[in-house]
Design goal:
The protein has about 110 residues and is α+β, with helices and mostly antiparallel strands. It has one domain. The chain is about 25% helix and about 30% strand. It has three helices and five strands. The N and C termini lie far apart (about 55 Å). About 15% of the residues are buried. The model has no long low-confidence stretch (mean pLDDT about 85).
Length: about 110
């Protein structure tokens, strides 16, 4: 009976829903507000309008650090347009090749 309860508890824990990722309109926020949201939540989706085609929405996932990236990815610097800064500094995950990350290691 105890074993069955342990298995049921483990299955329930694994089936728990993941936290939803927040989405923000970067162009409606200040750069400080965008950076604060990323730091507070760990990972967010930021969206903005394309500068070349304003009817085209662009978006990507941004993180507060590498621990929010998948295996085989690293956090790299990027920028998004905000209300007060056209190139607000944020981090996003990108896959890497070992040769590019550790060029002198053999």
């Amino acid at each position: 009976m105890t074993r069955l309860l342990t298995i049921a508890l483990a299955a329930t824990t694994l089936a728990a829903p993941a936290h939803a990722i927040s989405r923000y309109n970067a162009q409606g926020m200040s750069c400080n507000a965008v950076q604060a949201a990323v730091q507070r939540e760990g990972a967010v989706i930021l969206r903005w309008r394309s500068p070349r085609n304003p009817s085209l929405p662009l978006y990507d996932r941004y993180v507060s650090g590498g621990r929010f990236c998948a295996v085989g990815e690293v956090a790299v610097g990027s920028s998004v347009p905000t209300r007060d800064d056209q190139s607000c500094y944020v981090l996003k995950c990108r896959s890497y090749e070992r040769e590019n990350v550790f060029p002198f290691r053999d």
